[in-house]
Each structure stands twice: as structure tokens, then as C-alpha cells.
Input
Amino acid sequence: MQQLFGQKVLNDFIEKQDENLIEARWQKYKNFLAKKEKIASWIETDYQDGFLEDIFENCLGYISKTRSTDEHYTLEREKKNETNAQKADGALLVDDKVVAVIELKDLKTKDLEKKYNRQESAVRQAFGYLQHNNDAKYVIVSNFNELRFYFDKATAYEQFFLFDLDYEGFKKLHTILCYENISKELPHAIREKSLTFEQDISNQLYKDYTAFRTKLFENILKNNPHVDKLELLNATQKLIDRIVFILFGEDTDLLPKNTIGTIIQRQKEVKKLVKNFTLYDSYKVYFEAINSGDEDLDITMYNGGLFAEDTLLNKLIIEDEVLDARAKILSAYNFGSDISVNILGHIFENSISELEEISAELLNNDFDKKQSKRKKDGVFYTPAYITEYIVQNTLGKLCEEKRAQLNIAEVEAITNPKKPTKKEQETKENLLKYKEWLFDLKILDPACGSGAFLNQALEYLLKEHKRLQNDLALMGDLFASYEVEKEVLEHNLYGVDINEGAVEIARLSLWLRTAKRGRPLTKLANKIKVGNSLIDDKTVVPNAFEWHVEFPEVFAQGGFDVVIGNPPYTYRNVSIDKSYFQQHYISTQGNYDLYKFFMEKSIHLVSHNGLIGMIVPNTFLSAESYSNLRQIIIDNTNIKEIYDLGLGVFSNVVVESVIYILSKQNIGNETNIKMQRTRNIYCHQKSRQFSENLYSNLYVTA
Output
């Protein structure tokens, strides 16, 4: 779940609210809580009016049209859309204009994003109403317990579980949704402030993170001159990753609070007794404790590979100063509230270009800074809505199809757990089959970078497993819980990148998202690997990646189920690569842009029943030098979708981007072409005749 507001920014706004008003309305909210048992038995139509009255009128300060003593009202039930005949369940009004639409379901709708027997999910229904009310900005969706508040887009929201709200939770709900604040567009102000804060803190953290790594690498180079420089660069990145884990851990209860400060203080105390005990020695004590556990330090075993014994790291000589002042600067950030895992992901993705640049300099290779898809001017990253869209339309589609195939798209509660009917028993068995199918999925990013797509796939699978556990509970399986994160990391996610530092970062990003106190980190060395994804011959390049050797379990079942990513676009002027590509890639034609080779490679890596989803430049759609690639796509895949995003997807990058979704099934079917125009997506069907076409023939004008 991507939160709509930054927690720190929202808390600042909450502190400025009228405490007396909130307290008075909290007392009324208790009346709603007292009805919890009754509400659980009511169907949607029984309580929609009552819900709007209990929450929006009594607790949030709105005046309903039916109860208004004059013509002034701010809440309307069954509000007809402005541009069609459909009606939202409710609407919030300011100055007689609809500013928010409300979609209500009952408690049987456990998943607000699930379609059930409807054409659209509750969330999609609500956004449909938003499109037909010109002044509407906000979307509210609820099943009487869960309430979601969206602002403009369906990718981020604030979530409340109304039956479980305490006073602090109610203050948050009231701050966001009360009439006094909606009428002043306070949610918009909070959102803008959150975005500014996130960008500012991302850029500042990036500068501090980069400065730390630069100073640390310079110091390590100076003090360890007999070690290969590239090895030292990779060791520096691994050391940084360990320190970032500690920074994250000390603010999220994975580790004792102020662990960095304790490490520094411990060195000062020990040095009084052992003169040559360095600050790095103190860090190494804690590295071992995190790897193996230490009761005296109140640290549980995390293991997983990040803190495993590393001979090179252990023998490095590093001066105290660089590990003191710079680490303190990073430790001053609150990685629990101010620095989300998403912000760290942005930092990681942006830092990879620097690793590429430094590596190129160490190897005396040219590095095209202008063509690097990751920029140093502020934080650059793959937007969350891109990774979410691609994952939803590849992995998500496979899951939907499998549920439909097993007849478990919708699951009703078992009538008698001791005597299930034949149909109920079959449903439970199919749910267990689906569980095994989920664990057997193989998802790949062949140029994984910092792990943005793998993290999105992880998030989707965690959500799907939670839904599955709820379904099993409905069938009477009260012991359906299991360690989902561990299972997903061990079985589902695969990544490869040519940059060793990037691979370390990708692993770290997955660890940070799944780490729990007292539970060892999942080993990822056999799933997220270093190598040249495009070359499988070690006589050509030493880091060639032999796919069938590295991932035999995947190809034993025919390949990956899902291949996703944002492959590198750039042309590398390396003669040996050019010769290899000419011999092994049909798409070699006119230029050597790497993304065309990743597109071709992905078709060979995906299974017959699998899906490919990537974001790439749109040049492959029409440029003459891509006609071979287009023919490969035509001959070997079914183009499920082409989504033209135009310019502006990546800040500071002048490239028109396209999302494409491919399948190896039903070759010859029609293609769904989407064109992004401001807030709307125009969809058209177009037959698959584009191997030699230009833009004018491929694109459909909206």
C-alpha cells in the first residue's frame, strides 16, 4: 500500500487541529463503535444512510440534504453524476459543488479492489464517478469498517479501520475528512507538503548518502592500496548496505534504538583499554552480532548473507573519522517515519548510475553521463505507478486467470465447518491448489537494478497471500497463516544485473521491506544474481550469465511465468559485444540499443503460458532499425497491450515511453492500444499488423 501523505507532515497538521472540536466529535464516534455488532449483520442498503449519518454528519461535521433546515447542505445521498445517469452512493459538497464521491459496500465486500459479481471493484466504481464530476478531487470507499481516502489517483490512499480506531486514529481521520478541512482543501495542502517534503528529504538524503559513500571509498582506496580497486568499490557498497540496514533497523525496532551512536560510544570506551581498537572494529562487533545474534547487545540473529563472514571486508583498514561524522549525519534521519522504504528505493536506484560511472572510470571505459537513464540532478527513479501497472497487468492477470480457472474468484463463508458440503470441500481444496501455484510462480527482472519491479511484485504477492489466507479462514481453516514474506522471497522472485553493487542494493531493498525483529533474513544469493543477462558465453565475457545453469529449477518447468522491468536503453560501444549480438540476436539491426536485446531475450526466457511487461522507449514501434524486433514479436507473441505514455514519465529524461504487455498464447489476437492524454486513458482495439508499419499506421488517434 502506497500512503497518500507523509507521516511526519500529516502529524504536523494534526497537531494544529482544534482539540476541543475533535474531542466532542470523538464522543459521538463512540456511538458508532457501540453499533459494531449490529453493523456486521446489516447488508449494504440497510445501513448506507445510517453510515453517512453516523460518520459524516455526526462525527465529521457535514449537513445532509435530507436534514438541512435551509437550502445549504454539504452531504448528498445517491448523488447523480454530472455527465451521465449513474449515481454515487454519496457526495461531499462545498459551495454546491461536488468535491468528493463516496462508494459504499457492506462487510461482505472484504476486498475493496475485488470485482465479486460486479463488472468493477468498489474502488473502480468510485473512480468512475470521479471522472463524471468535474470539480471532484477526492474518492472515499468503504465497507462500513475499512475506509479508504484517495486523492485524484488510485495508486495511493489513506486507510482506516473504523471499528478499531482509537482516539489518535480518529484525530487523523477527522483531520483529513472533516468538513472544516475539506472546505479549505486541507488534504490538497497536506499532499503538496508531503510531496515537497519527500522530494526535499530524498534529495538531501541522497546527497548525504552519496557523500558518505564517496568519502568512504576514497578512504578505503587510500588505506588499502594493494587490493583491486573494483573489488574495493564493491566492498564499499556492501559496507554501506550494512550501515543502511542498521540505520533502518534502529528506527524500526529491528535493532536497539541509536545503535549507530552505541557503536561509536563503545569504541571510545574500549579504546581506553585497547589502544588500537578502531571504530571499524566496533562496527565489526555489531556486524557479527547482527549476523549471529547477541543477547548481551539485545540483537537477534538476522543472517541472510548481508552480514555473513566476508574476508575482504574484515581486513579493510578504515579511519575512524569517516565512519564517525558521516554516519552520524545519516543517523540523524528518522528511517522509521521520515524515510520510507520507497524513498530508500529511490535513493538506491539513483545511486546505481554513480556505481556505473565509478566502475567505468576504474576500468578506463567511457561512461555516457547524458545517456545514463539515472541522473544525479536530484533523485530519479521508476515511478510507482509504472511498476504497479506493469505488475498488475502481468502477475495480476495470471492470478486472476488462475482463480477463475479454479472457480475461487469469490469465496463464501462455509456454512458448517464440521460438515462442509461437497462444493465447499472442493473450494477449500482449490484454494490450497492455488496456494501451491502461487509459491511455484517464477518472476524475473533481467536488469533488476535496485529492485523496484521485484519489490512491486513482492508487494502484490503479499497482498494476494493475505487475500488467500482470508479465503481459507472463511472455509474454516483457522490455521492458514504462514510466513509469507520468507516463502515469496525463497520461491518467487528472481533478478539479474551486470552491476554487483546494484545486486547488493536490490537484495537490501527486499530485506528492508520484509525484515521482522527476531526473524533471520532470507538468503537471496541464489535468486538475485550478478551477471550479463544478454551474453551466456563465458569465453566472450567473464560475467556471462548461463540462464539454464544459474536457474535450473525455472527452466525445468519451461521458463519464467512473468518477465518485467525497465531495461537499460543505452548503446555501449564495445566491439566484442557487437560481434556477439550480430551472431546471436535477430534484432541486431542498425544500432545496438540494449533495450531491443532485452526485449528479444525476454521472449526466450518466458514460459509458454507466461507474460512479459516492460517500459521502454517507443522507437521500437516504428523505426526502421527495429523492424526485425517487430517481426520477432509478431511471430512469437500475442501483443496484449501497448500503452503509449509519451514524454514526462522520467523527470529530466527526454524519451517517449511505452509499456508493452506480451503473451505467448493465442498468437494472432487483437492488441489493446492505450494512449495517455492528461487524466484520461483512451483505449482502442487494433489488429496486429505492425511489423513494417510507421506510427501513422500503428497509433490510433483518440
Remarks:
- The chain is about 45% helix and 15% strand.
- The mean pLDDT is 86.
- Residues 186-223 form the longest helix (38 residues).
- The domain at 7-184 is CATH 3.90.1570 (tt1808, chain A).
